[in-house]
Write a structure and sequence with these properties.
The complex is a heterodimer of chains A (about 230) and B (about 240). With about 230 residues, chain A is mainly alpha-helical. Chain A contains nine helices and no strands. Chain A has one domain (about 5-230). Helices cover about 85% and strands about 0% of the residues of chain A. Chain B has a single domain (about 35-60, about 80-235), classed as Rossmann fold. In chain B, about 30% of the residues lie in helices and about 25% in strands. Chain B has a six-stranded mixed beta sheet, with helices on both faces. Chain B is globular and about 45 Å long. Classes of the chains: A mainly alpha (about 230), B alpha/beta (about 240). The interface of A and B includes residues 10, 14, 89, 94 and 232 of A.
């Protein structure tokens, strides 16, 4: 086996180990999922009281509404991503180990992605019930947009949460940095979702934009994470 | 005890090491070297720069000036698998049990054998079958587990920052004896501590720091120096 394939195999193993550790800790504490659920539930219920829309109106506004709920709920979870690593300075134990920084970043990102996807699975039936949502476009396209959009949110969110861990007001810093840089992705998510729900336009352009956004920002985050992790 | 040849290259070489935090110089131009297979006890008042020095050597802090060569490498990351670090904080996850913590950290070093973690726990006097989460451990138990985490990949060089803090005297003596045995296996150990007497029987050299500099190195602990340190810390 070549050195590079051995080290990439090692990185995959460390990513898996770190991911399993994070999932186990979340399963025990349920900190992230509970706070996300509570927040998303509030958005769904309050907006349904405020608007009481018809099925047609729902299709028009649901794209924005769904992603507002998921975006703000995700930020709540993202803020907690690194909190566990800061408690007892556990991050130092990772930094002094030979484990590659990107394995930690990928594990955290995949973990956050899974948490938000679980939230989306739990919240979707509520959206359907509260807003009488019926998609005119194909549902599989909604699933693809949800996955691409969620990845766009969590990959940047995980990165910027790491960037802001050493700042005093990190809870405020994360949305301040994350939202402006996520505008292209948010635009693509909302427009693609609305296009699919109403069936009035093709979501292809927005889906391609999301895919490109994901690739570009995942690459940038992976390239820069080492510097962020070891910044003083 | 393993006796190393006089020509053995030093494990740590510090060259004009300086570290600033803002305008405050925590380390002020340290140039020194340390031979392998020895147990060094680093002493000094609070703020003398002991922990900062250890963090620079471990690669957790970048020096502002100068260099630190560790096991022949200019970057600590290149020899990370040969170095064990124990910090002020326990560096453990409160939500996991002792074995789960060690299993995870062993994985970072490519070790996937549960026995390694269990042996490390036994070595520091902890029961590997203890299902309790680390958040429910006493401070002393956390320190022991933290030491087990630092040594579980069998490093050549161990950097231990206050390993005896919050540990009762009896347990601390046991831990000091463990460190002595580990040194006898050919490992190099740096222990930053305020409890110098605990290490008197096992230490090879006492390194005294003050105001960001190494002011004295001696093979035995001079009681006058120790008393002076104690008087200063209790004032």
């Amino acid at each position: 086996m070549s050195t590079s394939s051995a080290s990439s195999g090692q990185a995959v193993a460390i990513t898996r180990t770190t991911l399993m550790k994070d999932l186990r800790m979340e399963w025990r504490s349920k900190d992230a999922i509970n706070s996300m659920l509570f927040f998303a539930l509030l958005v769904v219920v309050i907006f349904s009281f405020a608007f009481n829309p018809t099925a047609e109106q729902s299709r028009q506004i649901a794209g924005g509404l769904i992603w507002v709920a998921f975006l703000f709920a995700a930020v709540v979870a993202l803020n907690q991503t690194w909190a566990r690593e800061l408690r007892n300075q556990v991050l130092d134990a990772y930094r002094v180990s030979p484990a590659p920084p990107n394995a930690l970043f990928l594990a955290k990102t995949i973990g956050n992605f899974l948490f938000v996807v679980v939230l989306e699975c739990l919240m979707t039936p509520l959206f359907v019930i509260f807003y009488e949502l019926r998609s005119i476009g194909p549902v599989w396209q909604l699933i693809v947009v949800a996955l691409l959009g969620t990845w766009a949110l969590v990959v940047n969110g995980t990165f910027f949460a790491a960037l802001s861990i050493r700042t005093r007001s990190r809870e405020i810093m994360l949305p301040l940095i994350l939202f402006p840089i996520s505008i292209p992705a948010l635009l693509a998510m909302v427009d693609a979702t609305t296009s699919i729900l109403t069936g009035e336009a093709s979501p292809d352009f927005w889906m391609k934009l999301l895919a490109v956004y994901d690739i570009v920002f995942t690459s940038i985050c992976l390239l820069l994470f080492d510097t962020v992790l070891n910044a003083e | 005890m393993i006796v190393t040849a006089p020509s053995s290259p030093p494990v740590i070489v510090l060259e004009n090491l300086v570290k600033f935090f803002g305008r405050f110089a925590a380390i002020r131009g340290i140039s020194d070297s340390f031979a392998p297979s020895r147990l060094y006890v680093v002493l000094g008042d609070n703020g003398a720069g002991k922990s900062t020095l250890l963090r620079i050597v471990a690669g957790l802090l970048e020096p502002s000036q100068g260099s630190c060569t560790l096991l022949g490498a200019r970057k600590a990351g290149e020899v990370a698998h040969r170095v064990g670090y124990m910090g002020h904080a326990p560096l453990l996850y409160d939500e996991l049990s002792g074995v789960e913590n060690l299993r995870y950290f062993a994985g970072l070093y490519g070790i996937h054998d549960d026995d390694v973690g269990r042996k490390a726990m036994l070595m520091v006097g902890l029961d590997p079958d203890l299902a309790r989460r680390v958040g429910q451990y006493s401070q002393g138990m956390r320190q022991r587990l933290s030491l087990a985490r630092a040594v579980l990949h069998d490093p050549e060089l161990m950097l231990l920052d206050e390993p005896f803090s919050n540990v009762d005297v009896h347990s601390a003596r046991d831990m000091a004896a463990v460190l002595g045995r580990v040194r006898d296996q050919g490992k190099t150990i740096f222990v930053v501590t305020h409890q110098a007497q605990l290490m008197e029987s096992v230490a090879d050299e006492f390194v005294h720091m003050a105001a960001g500099q190494i002011v004295r190195r001696e093979p035995t602990l001079r009681m006058d120096a120790l008393l002076a340190t104690e008087v200063r810390t209790t004032r």
